[in-house]
Amino acid sequence: MATAEILVVVGDITELEVDAIVNAANSALRGGGGVDGAIHRAAGPELARAGARLAPCATGDAKATPAFDLDPPIRHVIHTVGPVWDGGDAGEPELLASCYRRSLEVADSLGARTVAFPAISTGIYGYPPALAAEVAVRTIRSTATDVARVLLVAFDDRTAALLRTASASDG
Length: 171
Ligand code: AR6
Known about the structure:
binds ligand AR6
């Protein structure tokens, strides 16, 4: 195993050409707002039924469903539950790192070679985007995986800039 190449892209995660997309879900895995809502709208109602069968998903863990009506080549949705930001001393960095690590482990178990991640926890869950970008890049760089390429997907230009800064650093 090696480590994945990281690319930062701006756009809608449901429209990317990857084997698997990661969903910033909640523990019930039945859908919600933000990127979760966008993925459920694009995948269709089967996604919520499949998620409910796998629930609950603990914070920091990840579970996969098929991609249903999402366009090929997307074949899998990896649902992970990020931490709700509560000041940073409640284990949030470790739990967020676990989301990235567990999602890559699940991607390996599925044989996925290209995986797109949203900026987990940085929307409704309130994680400061600059700190989250550092955790994302550091964790992906330190996780052995057969995933060849990780796309870090920003939905806005500010998040894109933060992800680019984090991925340009050596640390
Ligand atoms: N493609 C890529 N990124 C997106 C998209 C999209 N289509 N839509 C939003 N984002 P959030 P969280 C970005 O709130 O903070 C849900 O209700 C968004 O701009 O989606 O982990 C779940 O069910 C932000 O940068 O996820 C949970 O209850 C990032 O995705 C809760 O929200 C994450 O924002 C999870 O909250």
